[in-house]
Prior knowledge:
With 108 residues, the protein is mostly beta strands. It is 6% helix and 68% strand.
Amino acid sequence: xxxxxxxxxxxxxxxxxxxxxxxxxxxxxxxxxxxxxxxxxxxxxxxxxxxxxxxxxxxxxxxxxxxxxxxxxxxxxxxxxxxxxxxxxxxxxxxxxxxxxxxxxxxx
Length: 108
């Protein structure tokens, strides 16, 4: 039986510059976590898109900077990006998973 529940545990290093977005009373902080894994053939790097919301942005937003080490838990959200392909002049849609964290710890 397949469950419709999801649960993600993730830890890694913040890469790049986080960005904050505001929509009405909702505040989001979006950032990328980089993790590494040795798959038996060598180390592989993975980048994960992460978002935190409202109170967590207030509490942790200033500490989430490039190079910070973060561990946390959350769930998956599907994001859609609609864009115009310059080469073909077509409107395209890209869907990707983003992790919405509800608990984090930051190593300073």
